[in-house]
Design a protein that fits this description.
The complex is a heterodimer of chains A (about 300) and B (about 190). With about 300 residues, chain A is of the alpha/beta class. Chain A is about 50% helix and about 10% strand. Chain A has a four-stranded parallel beta sheet with strand order 2-1-3-4, sandwiched between helices. In chain A, strands 6-7-8 form a three-stranded parallel beta sheet, with helices on both faces. In chain A, strands 5-9 form a two-stranded antiparallel ribbon. The two termini of chain A are about 30 Å apart. In chain A, about 60% of the residues are buried. The radius of gyration of chain B is 20 Å and the shape is globular. Chain B has helices spanning about 15-25, 35-40, 45, 55-60, 65-70, 80-85, 95-105, 110-125, 135-140, 155-165, 170. Chain B is mostly helical and about 190 residues long. Classes of the chains: A alpha/beta (about 300), B mainly alpha (about 190).
Chain lengths: ~300, ~190
Amino acid sequence: MKVGFFIGCNTAFNRPDLEKAFRFVLNALNVEIDDLDGQSCCPTWGTMPSVDEAGWYALGARNFIISEEKNVDMVTVCGSCYGSLSETKYKLDKKPELKEKVNEMLKAIGKEYKGTTRIRLATNFLYNEIGIERIKNALKYNLEGVTIGVQPGCHSLWPSEAYLEGERDPFHPVMLRELCEALGASAPYYSRIIDCCGMGGMRSTNVEASYKLVKTKLDSMKDEIKADLLVTGCSSCLIQFDTAQAPMKKDKMIDYEIPSVHYVQLLALCLGADPQQVVGLSTTDLNGILGKLKKIN
Amino acid sequence: MAEAIEVLNISEGELGFSDEIMKLGAEELLDCIQCAKCAAACPMVLAGFEFFNKRIIQSILIGQKEILLDDSSIWACQACNRCTEVCPRKVEPFGVVMAMRRSAIREFALPTLAVEGLKSLYDVGHAVYFSNAGEIRKKIGLPEKPPTTASNAQALKELRILMNKSALSSLGIIPMDSGLSDVTCCEV
């Protein structure tokens, strides 16, 4: 099997250890990667979507066309890329007049959007395409005894109409919990499971307000399920939880820290990857969790 | 002492503002009945922002453009789309917020970070870009540049042509190569 890796910006430049982890995971699960050479930013919300609807979709469509020409689906570890590109495809497929307008723009670069490929989120892809059993059978280490607080991320949940392989009930997500449980950990429900991480526009606009959401979420995870580890399905959520906790501790907003990783990083570790390469840029202290990886005989 | 309540004279609202927002992408704006389901689901409410989806829509409906231009809340929207999911009238409140941003940009009321993001998108094809990322990438065993517009001049040119074909080109927010606006077909 072959997939196109839609890397995006944050993964490539901010957390390339996550890029490394994704490459390791797909290789270990015998999935071939096409790099979709020439891809760009999705584009993210604060840029073209905030300027011009057709311009937003034209840039997204150009990314889709790279996949279409290679006849592969795009897979991303970033919720924002998944959200922006899913909305692009949803709107272009639903509104022929919009598709016509975008294709008129694309003529200038000699391209045409057909809509024959799709964007997929890594966690959904692992759950639906690889499957829990195949993941379990490939593990070299497990995480028995570890309690995980999951953070699926907004952009894998809503608007559910735009996501072809999302949750059955997006207000009660289960996929990331089951993926974590496949690694031998427990991943219980907690009351703030669908709360927003406050990254993106909110963090850029008002960091204190953004940290309020982080605190609400972390407190819920700590008090209700005593989480040893926070696992996200989105690179933006990862960056928020990995970088917000140190300044929040300094300002005495919290007096604890929950180590934070993306699911793809955690899976890479359980498949035997070198921690320096797949979680080497973490700011939260992962030593405790790394010590809990148990070798499977 | 209780805070003074500001009373708006809604007859002073900007005529045609709703039409402008609808043209900028919020086609179902007038279907809003202010039921507040969107507000109940909005993380901006939880974080304490004054203008969240429901209030933004109401302000637009009564023509209070200046209020929305003066407040940074529209830029704090997380694009989480909870509002779109729960709206019983299919107004797509998130789409209204984005249309409001498009209106604000036309008045040059946008945050510096948005300008920087657009400039970075045009310059390298990535809204988030760190020039020193190459060293970190190499350290963990990846090529200095990813296989994207950051390392592919032809692909970057394609992207810039599309940006020049969009509304961005007439706004003057970022420096753009005006020669790329005239590309019609297959001249890349």
